[in-house]
Amino acid sequence: MKNLLYSLLLGTAVALSSCESKLDEKHNNPDGFTSAEIEYLFSKGALKTIEIDYGDTWNYNFRLLGTYLQTTARQAGKDRVNLYQNIQDDKGRWENYYVTRMSTLTEIDKIYATLSPDEQAKYQNYVEAGKILKAYNTAIATDYFGNMPYTEAFTARNVVYGGSVILRPKYDTQKDIYYAILDDLKSAAAYFKTATGDDTFKRQDIIYSGNCDGWYKFANSLRLRYAMRISNVDPEKARQVLSELSPDQLITTNADNTYIKVSGIDTAPDGLWRAMRESHSKSHSYYMYAPELTVNMLKEANDPRLQVFYQPATNDDGDVYEDSKEIIGYPSSADKAIALVNGPDGTRLFEIYGCLNTVTFRKNYQLPVGIGMTAAEVYFCLAEAAQRGLFSGNAEEFYNKGVSLSIQNYYEYYKNSDADKGKDMNIANRDVSDGTLGSWLATSTFKFNPSKALEQIATQKWLHLGFLQIYENWAEYRRTDFPILDEDRENGALLNKENAPVRFLYPAKEASMNTENYNAQSEYNKIDARLWWDVK
């Protein structure tokens, strides 16, 4: 039974036994599917890969990593130490990877292998796009855990399709995993460079609507991201990957951003928006305050993003209180939060401190359901690579372009929002053209400074990724140690920075279901054990 359960966790929803097959023959469900179609599996796999779902937003964006990374701020300060100590297991991320994210995509590969050459040609778009999505999922997962089963995983369904079934897969090193996904992305990019999408692919592709050039740029942009992810520990591999890329092969405009979008409230899944509604209300406490670090940083720079990131204090419906005029950041220190909660205004802090902007986020059903890659991140990666001599180009120009694209990106969210009220047309119509932003940046505290360029680039990437791409933000913070976060102290004890966890732990079930391979990883299975690429 344990073996069966373990196989389920490594990429399958069902592993049919002979007894089950006989029962199925005698008791067919007239409403059930008897076979799976690649195109429909692909749409589901793409959604599960890119979407920002309710559980993730509720549990991680606001309550765990968002507070840790100070992309949001939580009202409560008492027992804040638990926020850091609670990263004592996999937080459901193991099954999220092997089952939720990967099982559908790996099923496509198994079906594809049974097809004739002519049929395979019909479905190659799906398989190559699936390579990109699997690489994306795998990078997120290995950035949680480091070494993990990969090359020997996903075999449970071979009982149906043929081939060996490995119930206790070996753990691949993170280096080997990164090399493998970089190879897959290179292969997929080479395919999409000349590929065309048929009508069926256009209908089923919920990310790029069958635009193969979009997939080409997405694959190459991920190659850039992951080359920079490993660049501190393996600069030569990073340099080799970067040498094969040029800006014209990458996502360089917001029109090319990797999104899943819906047409409005009628078609929007409830997850992201439900999490935002519940995360700033009297009944669920307050987790979406504007963090003091970001607010002060943006105010000092006179950054246009301040008004679209945040708004003054609001009620549960997202309406700004009549007497609330200024965006005031909430402190990230537990001790300061405790003092506020216990102070004279402790019952009305939500009437004082700013929170995430309702028009941009909470009631904007034009906000992407999921974000895979954006042009601003591409330019920040290029800026760092150029500054470190890993890529030819002008680091300052890349940096300036990244900042401009980030501002324009968030203003697009605000301007295109379908929020039923609260939109300020002075903000929506603000001039955020390249020329205007260039003039602002030249006199801003964010002006490029070669002596602290790497800190500036990392800080801007942190600002841009924010809470919507929290896993990438956590990975980049661990890699760069920027920005310099405010100290989070409870009873004087420093909770974050040096004491903060740098990985999730393997799930406890691995110890009993894959004992030998699990035990071989024991030296790495600690929340303070740095990943391969996390070099300090």
From TrEMBL:
Tell me the protein's name: SusD/RagB family nutrient-binding outer membrane lipoprotein
Source organism, top-level taxon = Bacteria
Q: Which SUPFAM superfamilies match?
A: TPR-like
The protein's organism comes out as: Parabacteroides faecis
A Pfam match:
SusD-like_2
Taxonomy of origin reads:
Bacteria, Pseudomonadati, Bacteroidota, Bacteroidia, Bacteroidales
